[in-house]
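haha ok so turns out i had the wrong file open the whole time. this is the CORRECT one, sorry everyone. sequence first:
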Amino acid sequence: MTQPTPIRREAARRPRLLDLFCCAGGAATGYHRAGFDVVGVDIAPRPNYPFPFVQGDALSVLSDLIATGGIDQFTAVHTSPPCQAGCALTIGTNTSRGWGRPHVDLVTATRTLLDVTGLPYVIEQPNGRAPIRRDLRLCGEMFDLGVIRHRNFELGGGWAAPQPAHRPHRGPVRGWRHGVYRDGPYVAAYGSGGGKATVPEMQQAMGITWTDVREELTEAIPPAFTEHIGRALITTHHSPGVAA
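then structure:
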């Protein structure tokens, strides 16, 4: 694989956040709305990513930034390591039916490097057995979205974000489950068929308009989630004793 493009130092007026395993930028957009300039890194080309982007292995890029001192240009790091090793689908339905293949856990290696940076950081994972602390748990209903999309966040580096109250769901997720079709106020923003959301429905439900690639939408975090987290991070960034 070719070497990733170096991340250039720039004089930023806003705090700068490194977005690792960035996919198409759902998380990045929330952080940008909260007040960060964002740089994304992903091993796959992401032409729809709406901010500066580097294609490369996320952990290799992070290691290089630590070794060269380039990490000093950032004030926080968000990570969404591939979650197949611990996600609910892998450990549940797929395992019980003998589907799929073994998956590598990248969460532990990611945390090890993040701790070396000394920066505030976020590790995001869906529900399942991924080895993270559940310091924050967010749901689409907390933000009046058309998806449930429960996500767990480990907040490392000595900071915290407020936990919104979990609102009761207004009904089921639309689609077929166990041979029964249910209608409801939420759409299933994953897979295809079986009453799952169309691409326009996913875009509207999550507040994501800059990509129409189904795979990118199914992996995305609604920007409302990370806007909430980002506002807490901005407060951390400007708190006494935190480097600017």
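The radius of gyration is 18 Å.
again sry for the mixup
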